[in-house]
Amino acid sequence: MTARVDAAFAKNLPKVELHAHLTGSITPQCLHEIWTQKKSGDPSMTLQDPLEAMSKDKVWDIMTFFPLFSKYIYELCSTPASIVYSINAVLRDFKEDGVVYLELRTTPRSSSSMSKDDYIATILSCIDDFPHRNVMTTYLILSIDRRNIPEEAMEVVDLAIQYQSRGIVGVDLCGDPSKGDISTFKEAFHKAKLYGLKITLHFAEVPASSSLLELKTLLSFRPDRLGHVVHVPDKIKAQIKASKLGLELCVSCNVQARLIEGGVADHHFMSWIKTGCPVILCTDDVGIFDSTLSNEYLLVAQAFNLSRDDLIDLCDQAVEAIFGDRHEKQRLCALVKEARENRMPID
Ligand SMILES: CNc1ncnc2c1ncn2[C@@H]1O[C@H](COP(=O)(O)O)[C@@H](O)[C@H]1O
């Protein structure tokens, strides 16, 4: 028996974040600072202030969420300077929340002032230069967007291979789940696997992306982890369970974007906990859903009556599923062990 979980305990846990989209992790405040800078250089700029466009009272659903990136945030963060400013803030925010290991994911993109290659090289340099990299190690996953054509998907994989030795550990499939034909990405994921990159896929996010055919095709890409896993039929569930795939669960995102019905207590978290698959709590887009990773731990503890030991077990499961090497695993296992030894008994 240990003391109750509170915010301070959740913050101090040695947390591992495995499903965080870089652009979605930028806070409205940081975007506001970029906006202010841009506006002072170009007073005729018509883009709305992020503090208004992304105010806390905004409700996001699957229709409004994806255009927020393509039609708004990408407009604001389109230069190497704005990328550097925002990624530094994102790294600081995760570190301050007690994250000790981070796998950030991002979709390579270009603008008039940078190529996709420049975009990735800039991000990797910021990760290298992050002053707290011995406290929080960071790796990168490159995302294929469901709207990509096969050539674009292959370009993502080629960039991942090009920069693999600098800390790219995997390839992701993300984007609007109502769009695209995922079967066209077979070759790209095959090549990623061939080069030793790990694979994580957004999986069964909405009913439209959860047909047996689509889910079977996605599993044929031989993923190492799956994200969201909301609308999974029993037959596919059994396959996931047999393969012991790591499951990246994004509770606040699923509740707020209405990917599930109801609140945190209605989330499918508990149904996966019993399967033996590593379950990993993740933020998805903390800049939009405004819930840090430590808050996600706190929310599930409150909703499902979890103890301090249960949360430490969750940290352990996250370590099991990282794409980093065995040295990283050893470092993280030692931190989790220390947390277990230091958890406060009831006095
Ligand atoms: C419900 N949650 C989600 N489901 C699917 N894709 C998501 C997502 N949240 C974010 N993205 C994907 O990540 C991109 C933004 O980050 P990056 O520019 O890549 O760093 C979005 O454009 C979308 O494709």
From TrEMBL:
Catalyses: N(6)-methyl-AMP + H2O + H(+) = IMP + methylamine
InterPro entries xrefs: A_deaminase_dom, Ado/ade_deaminase, Metal_Hydrolase
Keywords associated with the record: Hydrolase, Metal-binding, Nucleotide metabolism, Zinc
Q: Which GO terms describe its biological process?
A: adenosine catabolic process; inosine biosynthetic process; nucleotide metabolic process
User: What's the superkingdom here?
Assistant: Eukaryota
Keyword Zinc in annotation: yes
Which cofactors, if any, are listed as required?
Zn(2+)
Task: Enumerate the spans annotated as Adenosine deaminase domain.
Answer: 14-338
Name of one Pfam family that matches? A_deaminase
Q: Whom does it interact with, and what assembly results?
A: Monomer.
Give the PANTHER family listed for this entry: ADENOSINE DEAMINASE (PTHR11409), ADENOSINE DEAMINASE-LIKE PROTEIN (PTHR11409:SF42)
Official protein name in the record: Adenosine deaminase domain-containing protein
* The organism of origin for this protein: Alectoria fallacina
